[in-house]
Design goal:
The protein is an alpha/beta fold. The protein has helices spanning about 70-75, 125, 170, 175-185, 205-215, 225-235, 250-255, 270-280, 305-310, 320-330, 335-340, 350-355; strands at about 30-40, 40-45, 55-65, 90-100, 110-115, 115-120, 140, 150-155, 160, 195-200, 220-225, 240-245, 260-265, 280-290, 310-315, 340-345, 365-370. The strands form 4 sheets. Strands 3, 4, 5, 8, 9, 16 and 17 form a 7-stranded mixed β-sheet that branches. Strands 12-11-10-13-14-15 form a 6-stranded parallel β-sheet, with helices on both faces. It has a two-stranded antiparallel sheet with strand order 1-2. β13, α8 (about 270-280) and β14 (about 280-290) form a beta-alpha-beta unit.
Length: about 375
């Protein structure tokens, strides 16, 4: 599964870009980054090479960074933590090029993927092991921690996870979105015979399908308005790919799967209709998990929850345990990475690609920036 033949065609070519296989650039002289100066305003700028800020810091040469939906939210000025001016990019894999004097577990030359969060370690949530819920945590690719849309990042040693020598960097960078799916699967009670619907077949939804399959789920339907995405859903392990056009989501699911209800609904797309469909479809005492990032408040019919005693919960990012599990799955070749990564582009292409992805085009799941 680790081999990746990147899609080639006219989609990126229509904006003056071409899909290309990742190639590591050697002998970098200038340090550059794609800087989001304001909403919808991103440019390549010369930057100072970041320096180690502490004895346990690590300087990583970025080799691959995935473009996440949260970067698109930030590009639109809609992300609460990723505000301009900022160097975005939090799905990062690379090579260690320098270490602080107290670093013990990684060394120069190591190939690593970065867990892009650092919690405070002392609040009630951290002490309970819920580092993902720490209100003081730092996020990579935010104004407080410059991200992977550049040539180098400085990260704490504790955030570095070693990757297998034969795992391509642009595959390793999928650890972050896969960890989101791993955490979601861990939040759910998923007996093998349960019927599960995943609303949204973007990278998060598709990798949630992969994570659910890894814990034994056998009956999964993935739903999306893009036919291409639902077809990819079938290839990564879904039993049904439900293409929704004009019909209400719940009607489309019932007609295309034959299921009258589902046991579990995972909302992995920030569309209000997905929430309504999930609540409508889920059986009495069933589970609804909210995984997506919503740009605006969503109105829902609470009687669905009350009348059927639904268990509605949220899932936010992941813990280090989830991230480690994701890395192990990637290292073991258990993830169909070639289905998720649609295109690889260079750093200089990022502003144009962000403009393109902001239009939510058909035929693209994940774009990886390779250096």
């Amino acid at each position: 599964m680790r081999s990746c033949v990147l899609a080639r065609g006219s989609r990126l070519g229509s904006i003056g870009l071409t899909a290309r296989p990742p190639a590591l650039q050697q002998g970098v002289i200038a340090t550059k980054a794609a800087v989001l100066a304001a909403p919808y305003d991103m440019n390549i700028k010369d930057m100072d090479t970041p320096s180690l800020g502490g004895d346990k810091d690590v300087l990583v040469k970025v080799r691959a960074t995935g473009i996440c939906g949260s970067e698109i939210h930030a590009y639109r000025g809609k992300h609460p933590r990723r505000r301009p001016p900022v160097v975005l990019g939090h799905e990062v894999a690379g090579e260690v090029v320098a270490t602080g004097r107290r670093v013990r577990h990684v060394k120069v030359g190591d190939r690593v993927v970065i867990e892009p969060q650092v919690s405070c370690g002392v609040c009630a949530e951290c002490l309970a092991g819920n580092h993902n819920l720490c209100s003081e945590k730092k996020l990579l690719g935010s104004s407080e921690w410059s991200g992977g849309f550049g040539e180098y990042v400085v990260v704490p040693e504790e955030t570095c996870y070693e990757i297998a020598p034969d795992l391509p960097m642009h595959h390793a960078a999928l650890a972050e979105p896969l960890a989101v799916g791993v955490h979601a699967a861990r939040r759910l009670n998923t007996p093998p015979d349960h019927r599960i619907v995943v609303m949204g077949a973007g990278p998060i939804g598709l990798l949630t399908v992969v994570a659910l399959r890894s814990v034994g789920a056998r009956h999964i339907a993935v739903v999306d308005a893009k036919k291409f995405n639902t077809e990819v859903g079938l290839r990564v392990g879904a039993s049904f790919g439900v293409h929704v056009t004009s019909a209400p989501i719940e009607e489309a699911v019932k007609s295309q799967t034959g299921w009258s209800t589902v046991d579990i609904a995972v909302v992995a797309a920030g569309n209000p209709s997905c929430v309504a469909g999930a609540l409508s479809l889920t059986r009495a005492h069933g589970q609804v998990l909210l995984l997506a990032l919503f740009e605006e408040p969503v109105s829902v019919d609470l009687m669905h929850i009350q009348s059927r005693e639904l268990y509605v919960s949220g899932s936010k990012m992941y813990t280090s345990e989830d991230f480690r599990t994701a890395v192990e799955m990637l290292n073991a070749g258990q993830v169909p990475c070639d289905e998720i990564v649609s295109y690889a582009v260079s750093l200089q292409d990022v502003p144009a690609v962000m403009r393109y992805l902001n239009k939510s085009p058909e035929g693209v799941i994940k774009v990886s920036v390779v250096n």
